[in-house]
TrEMBL record:
Record protein name field: Succinyl-CoA:3-ketoacid-CoA transferase
Keywords: Transferase
Single GO term (MF): transferase activity
NCBIfam families: pcaI_scoA_fam (TIGR02429)
Domain of life: Bacteria
Pfam name, any one: CoA_trans
Family: Belongs to the 3-oxoacid CoA-transferase subunit A family.
Origin species: Streptomyces graminofaciens
Length: 267
């Protein structure tokens, strides 16, 4: 009798930990206008395409996005950008997207450029509860001195510029103060995941995904393969489920939809 009661409690506890959403549509339904989003991916590798497209259909606007880049025309975050749903971007690379350049230079989009390693650490720090840190990256440049155009006016003048940042010497070397990043939501993509939100990323798709997941107050992960709790070995889990609140299992078609940004072949 004791064994049966114990098993029943374990099963009940497991069901309470089940974080699987029925669809990407359901998983992003409560993202409001003006929400901040940390989004995984590098170029088009490891981008949560299904969640981004579901958010596009959902209609949320005036979004503030933190991501390494903003996709390309018609793919990744480029889908939201082209629809005019993004108001502000914090990122480190803005190439390969003509619509991004147009919106930025015309004053429709606010852009905060951050050195790539600094952006990664700002996300990690935010997820770890670290409010700020010092780094030598950006010392002696506009990153530290301020003046980087965040938003242009329609006439081409700078409407909003980055402020100067605090600097301090450590062991005779100057460092600039950077702040950790947390966002309302995070959208990420993983190779495998279980119902408790534990995630495994595959190869290059690891990129910014674990860091973005850590930074989000509510993190939604789309996974190519959903497994039961216990099937993932503890030593292979890249991100523990404590950082993930919702999991969406992709269809076979969605899992196979991996667009190659630049294909190169030998002569």
């Amino acid at each position: 009798m004791v064994v049966r009661t114990s098993r029943r409690r374990r099963l009940k506890g497991s069901s309470l930990m089940d974080k699987v959403s029925s669809s990407a549509t359901e998983a992003v339904a409560d993202i409001p206008d003006g929400a901040s989003l940390a989004v995984g991916g590098f170029g088009l590798s490891g981008v949560p395409e299904a969640l981004i497209r579901a958010l596009h259909e959902q209609g949320a606007t005036a979004l503030e996005v933190v991501s390494n880049n903003c996709g390309v025309d018609g793919r990744g975050l480029g889908v939201l950008l082209a629809a005019g749903r993004i108001a502000r971007v914090t990122g480190s690379y803005v190439g390969e997207n003509k619509e991004f350049a147009r919106q930025y230079l015309s004053g429709e989009l606010e852009v905060e450029l951050v050195p790539q390693g600094t952006l990664a650490e700002r996300l990690r720090a935010g997820g770890a509860g670290i409010p700020a840190f010092y780094t030598p990256a950006g010392v002696g440049t506009q990153v530290a001195h301020g003046g980087l155009p965040w938003r242009y006016a329609p006439d081409g003048s700078v409407a909003v510029a980055s402020p100067p940042k605090e600097t301090r010497d450590f062991h005779g070397r100057p460092h600039v103060l950077e702040h950790g990043i947390t966002t309302d939501f995070a959208l990420v993509r993983a190779w495998r995941g279980d119902r408790h939100g534990n995630l495994v990323f595959r190869r290059a798709a690891a990129n910014f995904n674990p860091l973005a997941a850590m930074a989000g107050r509510v993190t939604v992960a789309e996974v190519e393969e959903l497994v039961e709790p216990g099937e993932l070995r503890p030593d292979e889990i890249h991100l523990p489920g404590v950082f993930v609140q919702r999991v969406v299992e992709l269809t076979s078609h969605q899992a196979a939809d991996k667009y190659i940004e630049k294909r190169t072949v030998r002569a």
